[in-house]
Amino acid sequence: MSRILEPRKLVTLALLGAGGISAFADVGALTEKFEKRRSAVIVPLRVQLSKDLRALEQRYAKSGDLDQATKFKRARTLVEKSLDGEPAKRGFPVIDETIGEDGRHRMKRLRDDYRRKIGKVLAPLLRVYATELAKLEKSLTAAGKYEAASKAKGERVYAERQSHLIREWPRVPEGAVEFGGNQYLFIDKTSTWHKARKKCADMGGHLVTVTNEKENRFVRNLSRKKNLWLGATDEEKEGEWVWITGEPFEYSHWNSRSPDNHKGNQHYAYYWSKGGWDDHSPDADQATAICEWDKPEYY
Predict the structure, then answer these.
(1) How many angstroms separate the first and last alpha carbons of the chain?
(2) Where are the domains of the chain?
(3) What pLDDT, in 10s, does the model give residues 251-265?
């Protein structure tokens, strides 16, 4: 643990193992093996991150800026605590916005370097995991073990999604705003729902999804209270609203009479400029958009 291996070496070590992943016959064993390999590549990077944060903490303490030193110590403590729990699931500490311009600059540079290293080691590991899950899913389906095959499929979709997020994260454009770890970019140009969705996808993100009240208020303010498309639809089945990302549709902010599917073709969620959500038709209505980039789990 005292020395950090180069990411390429870490990946090589992570992919080695007695018999390889394909030696496991069930999803649980396959997932457990992945978790161990994931921790094997992340823990050394988090140990180094702790050292880097300590160095900055001591730098500020030596200069007499104890307030800054305290904030870096707090971040370092969070990283070190994660080493005693589930380090593979912990991301970079949230940057304290009161830390000052110099402190924010140093933290962001440290964060970007950490995320680059994490992405480099995890992307290939996730691809291997997804490939082996796909093989297992196919064999379980052929054997008639559909419940197990469904579990393998769920894990495969998860692995593919995380790999995609790591790949696309560097493409987040300038001007995007961070909230809750994710990145958001307001597109102040009206278009149809489908065109807005495609524009976001072309940039590696997705049309914004809103899953809680805090995010709803943030989106409302970011859009400057203009008419705004949301990434929700019930086009597959009337009345069953889903987020285009597959997230559970558990939060909503509909107006009192919405959704009402007026004229039978309103299947797309729309944040009305006067407040509240409504359902609208895909082509007849125009609105602005917010593109969102989900933070990879490990960032």
Answers:
(1) 21
(2) 7-171, 177-293
(3) 989 877 777 766 767
In single-letter form, the type of residue at position 4 comes to I
Residue type, 18: A
277-to-188, 199, 229, 232 alpha-carbon distances in Å: 19, 22, 9, 11
- How far apart CA 164 and CA 220 sit, in angstroms, is 28
pTM score, two decimals? 0.69
State the CB neighbour count (10 A cutoff) for residue 27: 21
Alpha carbons 260 and 234: distance in angstroms, whole number: 12
**Ordered alpha helix ranges (H), 63-192:** 66-83, 101-142, 146-168
Per-residue pLDDT of 167-220, as tens digits, reads 877 778 888 888 888 899 999 998 998 999 999 999 889 999 999 999 999 999
The two three-digit tokens of residue 40, written as one number: 């094997």
d(CA 65, CA 80) in angstroms, rounded, equals: 23
Helix axes 27-62, 7-15, angle to 10 degrees: 160
Q: For the domain 177-293, what is the CATH code?
A: 3.10.100.10
Q: Is 175 exposed, middle or buried (0-12, 13-18, 19+ CB in 10 A)?
A: exposed
* Token reading at 122: 């995890």
What distances in angstroms separate CA 148 from CA 136, 153, 193, 204, one per listed residue?
A: 9, 9, 37, 32
Q: Which neighbouring-strand residues pair with 185?
A: 291
- Amino acid type, 113: D
Please list, in sequence order, all residues whose beta carbon lies within 8 angstroms of the beta carbon of residue 212, skipping any fewer than 6 positions away. Answer: 251
The CA distance from 21 to 143, in Å, is 20
